Amino acid sequence: MKSTFISREKNDVKFTMEFTAEEFDKAVIAAYQANKGRFAIDGFRKGKAPRTLIERHYGEDVFYEDAINEMFSQNYFQALTELNINVIDRPNADFSDIKKGEPLTVAITVTAYPEFEVKDYKGVEIQKVDNAVTDEDVDKEIEALQKRNARMVLAERAAKEGDTVLIDYSGFVGEDQFEGGTAERQPLKLGSNSFIPGFEEQLIGCSAGDEKDVLVTFPEEYHAPDLAGKEAVFKCKVHEVKEEEMPELNDDFAKDVSEFDTLEELKKDKKENLEKAAQDRAVNEMKNAVLEKIYEANDVEIPQVMIEDEIDGMVQEFDQQLRYQGMDLQTYMQYLGKEAKDFREELRADATKKTKTRMLISAIADAEKLEVAPEELDKELAAMAEQYKMEVEKIKTMLGSDNFAALEKDLKMRKAVDFVYDNAVIK
């Protein structure tokens, strides 16, 4: 097979794959051997008829399609390698007149990865981001830890927002009690907004033993159509009022909730963790600022197929998130009254920016000849193994060759982002 580059106009590349008459005939013979069992010829057992007889009966081109497909699949990627073409879409192939005993030429048009030179990626000027951690931030962390370790105790008083009440309730529309509107000894945190709007506020001020008629109006978009938009009354009885009792902030608290012996040690550790997180956020914000300036400085023509592929990925990811919540994309679209094409258009601007940014980062990695060292790959695999509590070899097996290559590419892209950040001018 001989591959010949013809032309490139923007991102559309044309080239040919030329096969000799001998190569074509050899492929036809292989197609005959692989498919002869499909043909029944009188006087011959199935699969035993000679090729010439099958061709005479069904036409001499009966095996051409299979032969050409096999030749194409075996040689296409070799041609791309020889001609140094990085494709991003499926090819369109145009076959020359196919004649027995003559060479075969395949003319191919395919969309290739854009060729461009990224500029202005060194010395990018950005403003320094300083996310300072205050004593108030530390106190909030300790308070959150305190709340997570609070216990519920009976409150000998009327309920207020934030309390948890234990109630029985029965729901009525008019004189009719409706299905699903009854519960006994149901805990409800006042202010959680977990019940129908207006329900929880009316229980504020009630004490244990009180009975209360709670008047509400169901939302117009309520999931039960027979209740949507209707007024209802819930006959409630309060059994208990409970409040959160916070543990006292002292050294004993620190010992109970951490590996530290004193409250001061716990606060110091929280502050160090907050400072590290704040520093990481600051670095990420500055990296994004560098990438934003490089994005604005470079005008790159993006093939539509790349943008459509990015949108496909975003749609698929969103659909998976919906499924985790018990819904799917089609149901979500129906709920919003949208069509899939409208949703895709809403994602187009974001997809375009993501695609261009990734192209620029990749171009920087190539321009700077950045490579991933074996020890860097090993370090990443070890981190993944620790995260998923698995052995490194098991991680390698799960990744497979394709995902392993994708991981290596991802690390290379990260190095490119680090490179432009390290070479930025931070004011």
Descriptive report:
Its main location: cytoplasm. Among the domains are: 2-111, Alpha-Beta Plaits, CATH 3.30.70.1050; 151-245, Chitinase A, domain 3, CATH 3.10.50. The chain has helices at residues 21-35, 51-58, 64-83, 135-148, 251-257, 263-297, 304-324, 329-336, 340-367, 374-388, 392-422; strands spanning 2-9, 12-19, 92-95, 104-111, 125-126, 151-154, 164-173, 176-189, 211-217, 231-245, 425-426. The chain is an alpha+beta fold and 427 residues long. Strands 6, 7, 8, 9 and 10 form a five-stranded antiparallel beta sheet that branches. The protein has a four-stranded antiparallel beta sheet with strand order 1-2-4-3. The mean pLDDT is 93. The protein is extended, with a radius of gyration of 34 Å. The chain is 47% helix and 19% strand. Helix 1 crosses helix 3 (64-83), helix 4 packs across helix 6 and helix 6 (263-297) packs across helix 9 (340-367).
